[in-house]
């Protein structure tokens, strides 16, 4: 394919082609330019001829007056005269030739015309005519030449115009091409920037590709690992499936066996339930045989720093079966000072014998004591209200018996934590037979006939905000203490926390003048609720563990200062509530129609744990010291009265 020629080149080609046409007339005078040989110049060129002619004319004119010689007679020209007159150097070759031709007289026989004599006018005329003719011919030639030149000029002008138009077109074209070139440059610049950008992108993409390739390699590696694992898993799955099918067969046979076992279990459950009910009945019968009101006497050991009592002061006579029998008797020997004074001899001693359901001498441990009451505590789970008191003078060991000794030693743990642990454990066992139990604890203090919550927390801690004993609802037998916390408990830790809180609350209330804890009754109550959902059975009873206020009397000989007066009021309140407790027990024992529960806050709060269906145990705590003998005897007498009471047959609170 022939490359496309630019319009510019095409124009140039045209120009080249036409050049000869333009150049040709260059030899001719262009319009507007003056020919070197203009008419004037030509005139000048002709000048010598003219001059010569004129001279001739002059001669002719002169000759006319002469007789005419033969006009065309060739006259021999003198040698050297035949040559044309010299042409001035200025004139061009053509013009000079023409002029020579015109001016020169006709050459006859190659001879130079001879100068006509002046008289030869005819000859001269003839010469002039010939010269004129020659001039006319020359003029005609010149005219033709002129015409030709005019034509050439026109043609050249046309060509010039055409070339001008073409030039303008080409200029326009050039401008357009330049604009295009500029645009092209700009585009080129843009494209270069774009190329750079793309190169940069390419670099990023390449690094990304490398990264991805690396990642791909990693993934391929991982995939291989996974494939291997999958294979392994598949193998183990196959093995498992094989084992599963074996197991299925086994399961089927086991199911059958289970069905048989379930039927057996139901049967066994029925039997077990029957046995459990029988156990409860027998257990209760046993407790009743032991007495619904039992009194245990506990003598605390002599503490370090205390005087050792004289031998024989406290005696624990063995039972009918000898020393192996659990002790039930206690003797206190007291010197009869009145009789001694009368005779002057050493005062004889009076021996006071007491008999209780059980007597624990000073060496008895907490576990030994609890063993005796564990069965009683269990009655609360079977639905019988249980109430355990600790009675005695201050310092006789009531708190030790109920809550335990100091230091958190498990050996000296008291009845409250032990009883609760036992209940939780038995409740758990009964859970296997379909029983579910819940326990809610409360712990209050009754001081000077006001009730105070020992489980109060936060701002109420130790403040003893007013608590009132109220019926849980209209017509309800259940009692509740307003403003007191009732805390659900399910493990020993929670019970421990509650006892700790109670100790803190007591410590806050204590003042230097008044060891209030010994002057108030502490009542720990546990509401027990049992349910056998399968059989629609429910049973519930309160377990009350009461650390009574010190039973000591106020020395009537003491001077009555403000502190003592306060003490007297406290003591009167304590004595009143303790004697009310005795009266209530008596009234219950005598089956009196009116039981004075309302006479004290303590009996009012405990009325549901003291009634006919309740089981009651009283610990009478005794100091081993001789100096406390009077209070010890008082306590023992009170306990003996209680011990003589028999409260009617207990009825389980079954619903
Ligand atoms: P109460 O509560 O009747 O006022 P406590 O329980 O506070 O008497 O006992 C008074 C002191 O005697 C305490 O230091 C206690 O640890 C100690 N105590 C009481 N009973 C025993 C016991 N059985 N064994 C060891 N120490 C005892
Ligand atoms: Mg105490």
Please outline the helices and strands:
Elements: H1 7-23, H2 39-63, H3 93-103, H4 121-290, E1 293-299, E2 314-315, E3 329-335, H5 337-343, E4 349-355, E5 358-360, H6 366-381, E6 386-392, H7 398-402, H8 415-431, E7 435-447, E8 450-453, E9 469-471, E10 479-481, E11 487-489, H9 492-509, E12 521-532, E13 537-547, H10 562-589, H11 601-610, E14 615-622, H12 629-644
Parallel strand pairs: 1-5, 1-14, 6-13, 6-14
Antiparallel strand pairs: 2-3, 3-4, 7-8, 7-11, 7-12, 9-10, 12-13
Bound molecules: adenosine-5'-diphosphate and magnesium ion (MG).
InterPro entries: Kinesin-like_fam, Kinesin_motor_CS, Kinesin_motor_dom, Kinesin_motor_dom_sf, P-loop_NTPase
Subcellular location: Cytoplasm, Cytoskeleton, Microtubule organizing center, Centrosome; Cytoplasm, Cytoskeleton, Spindle; Early endosome; Nucleus
GO molecular function: ATP binding; microtubule binding; microtubule motor activity
């Amino acid at each position: 394919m022939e490359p496309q020629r630019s319009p510019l080149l095409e124009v140039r080609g045209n120009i080249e082609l036409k050049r000869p046409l333009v150049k040709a007339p260059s030899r001719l005078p262009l319009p507007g330019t003056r020919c070197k040989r203009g008419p004037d110049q030509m005139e000048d060129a002709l000048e010598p001829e003219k001059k010569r002619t004129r001279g001739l004319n002059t001669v002719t004119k002169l000759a006319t007056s002469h007789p005419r010689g033969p006009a065309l007679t060739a006259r021999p020209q003198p040698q050297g005269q035949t040559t044309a007159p010299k042409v001035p150097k200025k004139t061009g070759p053509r013009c000079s030739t023409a002029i020579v031709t015109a001016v020169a007289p006709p050459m006859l026989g190659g001879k130079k015309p001879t100068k006509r004599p002046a008289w030869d006018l005819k000859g001269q005329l003839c010469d002039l005519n010939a010269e004129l003719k020659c001039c006319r011919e020359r003029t005609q030639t010149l005219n033709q030449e002129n015409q030709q030149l005019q034509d050439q000029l026109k043609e050249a002008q046309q060509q010039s115009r055409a070339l001008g138009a073409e030039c303008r077109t080409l200029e326009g074209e050039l401008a357009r091409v330049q604009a295009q070139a500029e645009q092209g440059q700009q585009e080129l610049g843009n494209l270069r920037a774009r190329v750079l950008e793309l190169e940069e992108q390419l670099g990023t993409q390449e690094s990304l590709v490398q990264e991805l390739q690396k990642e791909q390699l990693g993934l391929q590696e991982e995939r291989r690992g996974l494939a291997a694992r999958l294979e392994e898993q598949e193998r183990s799955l196959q093995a498992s499936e094989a084992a599963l099918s074996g197991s299925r067969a086994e399961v089927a046979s086991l199911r059958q066996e289970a069905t048989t076992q379930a039927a057996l279990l139901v049967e066994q459950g029925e039997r077990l339930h029957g046995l459990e009910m029988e156990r409860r009945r027998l257990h209760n019968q046993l407790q009743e045989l032991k007495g619904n009101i039992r009194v245990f006497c506990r003598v605390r050991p002599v503490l370090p720093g205390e005087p050792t009592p004289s031998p024989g002061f406290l005696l624990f006579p063995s039972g009918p079966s000898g020393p192996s029998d659990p002790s039930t008797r206690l003797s206190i020997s007291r010197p009869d000072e009145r009789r001694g004074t009368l005779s002057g001899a050493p005062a004889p001693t009076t021996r006071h014998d007491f008999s209780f359901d059980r007597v624990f001498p000073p060496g008895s441990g907490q576990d030994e004591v609890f063993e005796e009451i564990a069965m009683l505590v269990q009655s609360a789970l079977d639905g019988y209200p249980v109430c355990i008191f600790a009675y005695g003078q201050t310092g006789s060991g009531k708190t030790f018996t109920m809550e335990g000794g100091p230091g958190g030693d498990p050996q000296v743990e008291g009845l409250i934590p032990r009883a609760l642990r036992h209940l939780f454990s038995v409740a758990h066992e009964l859970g296997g037979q379909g029983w579910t139990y819940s326990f809610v604890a409360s712990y209050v203090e009754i001081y000077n006939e006001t009730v105070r919550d020992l489980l109060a927390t936060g701002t109420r801690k130790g403040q003893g905000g007013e608590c009132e004993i109220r019926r849980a609802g209209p017509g309800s037998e259940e009692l509740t203490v307003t403003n007191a916390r009732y805390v659900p408990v399910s493990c020993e830790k929670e019970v421990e926390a509650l006892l700790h809180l109670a100790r803190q609350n007591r410590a806050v209330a204590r003042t230097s003048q008044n060891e209030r804890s010994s002057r108030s009754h502490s009542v720990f109550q546990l509401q027990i609720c049992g349910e056998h959902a399968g059989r629609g059975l429910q049973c519930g009873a309160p377990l009350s563990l009461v650390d009574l206020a010190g039973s000591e009397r106020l020395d009537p000989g003491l001077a009555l200062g403000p502190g003592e007066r306060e003490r007297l009021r406290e003591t009167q309140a304590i004595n009143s509530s303790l004697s009310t407790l005795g009266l209530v027990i008596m009234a219950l024992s005598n089956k009196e129609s009116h039981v004075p529960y309302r006479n004290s806050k303590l009996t009012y709060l405990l009325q549901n744990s003291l009634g006919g269906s309740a089981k009651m145990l009283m610990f009478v705590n005794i100091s081993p010291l001789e100096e406390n003998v009077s209070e010890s005897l008082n306590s023992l007498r009170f306990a003996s009265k209680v011990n003589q009471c028999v409260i009617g047959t207990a009825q389980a609170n079954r619903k």
